[in-house]
Amino acid sequence: MSEALLLRGAEAVLTGLPGAAAHAGAADIRIREGRIAEIGPNLATQEGERVLDVSGCVVYPGWVNTHHHLFQSLLKAVPEGIDKPLMGWLAAVPFRFQDRFDPELLEIAATIGLAELLLSGTTTCADHHYLYFAAGDDTLGDVLFEVAERFGMRFALCRGGATDTEQFSDYPNRIRPQTVERYAADVERLTARFHQRGPDAMRQVVMAPSTPLFSATPQGLRELAAHARRLGIRMHSHLSETADYVRHAREAHDMKPVEYCAEHDWLGPDVWFAHLVHVDEAEIALMAETGTGIAHCPASNCRLGSGVAPVPRMAAAGMPVSIGVDGTASSEAADMISEARLTWLVHRAVGGAQATAVEDVVHWGTRGGARILGLDAVGTLEPGMAADLAVYDLAHPRYLGQFQPALAPLMGGGAPELRYVLVGGRVVVEHGAIPGLDLAALRARAAAAVDRLAREVA
To answer: What is the pTM for the complete model shown?
Structure first.
C-alpha cells in the first residue's frame, strides 16, 4: 500500500479536466491509499503524512502515452532511414533490424524507453509490440511487463504481429506470419497472465495486429475482433498514416480505410488507431459515432513527412483523442511533454492561432489517453482519482517571467526538471532521478547493443 502523502505549496495545478476546471490554482494535494483525497490551499498536515515540498512547481496529471514501439529505443537515427518516407523508412530500419531482437536487447530497449518516458512525466505507456515470428519466441512481449513493473508504471501491451503478410511486398523474407489461431492463443495466454480489470488497472493486454489492411485477411480480422471482445480486451492498430495507404484501400477494396475497418468489426469504443493522418469528414463522423479513438503522433508524422492528422476537427466531432510518441526510430524521443508541445504548435501552423489551446492538449495527453484505455480513475487531478502525477520544477530561467505558471512546462519547451513523479501514490521519480536506475551502466549497455545491431546487419 502506498504511503500517506501531502504535496505542499504547488504554484499551480493543471487538472487535465476540460474548460474552466482545468486550472486549480495554487494548491496542496493530499494522497491516501494511492488516490487523491483532497486538493486545496493551505491544507493542514495530518498525523503520519509524509510531506513533499513542491513549492515553485507546477503539478500535471501523469501523461498517458497511447502508442509506442519500445524496441525502437535502440534504433534512433539509423542513417539509412533518416530522410526516408514511411515505406522506405520501414525497409531501412524496423524491417531490417526487428528479427535481431532477443530478450536481452528488448530488455535494454524497454529500459531506455520507459526511463525516458518516466523522466518526461509519463505514468502510463501502451506499447504496440509486433516482434513475433512464426518460428520464434512468443514470450518477447512478457519482457516489457517485467520492465514496466520495475519502474512502477502502468503498462498496456498491445500485442502486435501479422497473420497475413502476402499483401506487404516490402516485408523481409525471413519474417513469416503467424496463424490466426496461434496469434489469438497467445493473446489469451497474455490476458490470463497479466491483464487486470478495473478503473486504475496497472497491467492491460490489447489485441493489436500491425495494420488492418496488410496484417490479416478480412476473415482473420473479424476473427481477431471477435476473440478480443470475448476476452473483454481492447483493440488497436495503425491506420491511414500516409496517402499511399488510402490509395491502396481504394484500389484493393474500393473502400476508404475507416470504411474497411467498419466492414470488418474494427470500429467501436474499445478501438483506437494510431496516426489517422489521411481521413476525410465522413470517416471522422463514423469514428465519432462509434466512439473509435486516435493516438495522435505528430513528431513521427512530421519526421516521416506523412502529414498532420486533423485532430482539432476530430475532437470537435466528439472522437476520443489521445497522444502517443510512436517509436523513437521515427521520432528520436520518447518524451510526452515534447510531443504535447508539438501537438499544440503544429495545429496552429496548419489551422491558425486558435486551433489548439494548451489546456486541450493536456487533456488529450492525460485524461484523453486514460479514457481510450478504459482507465476511468486515471488522467485527472481531482478527489477520488488515482494519484498519477508529474511535478515540474520551474527554477530554470526558461520558465521565469511567466504570467501563467501552469502553462509553463508545456509552452516553454525543453525538458522541464521533474521534482517528483507519482504512480498510484508511489514516488517513482524523485528530484529528477529514478531510484535504483544506474544511468551510466544503462548508457554502456545501450552503446554495446547498438554496436551489436550495426555489426549484425552490416
So the answer is: 0.96
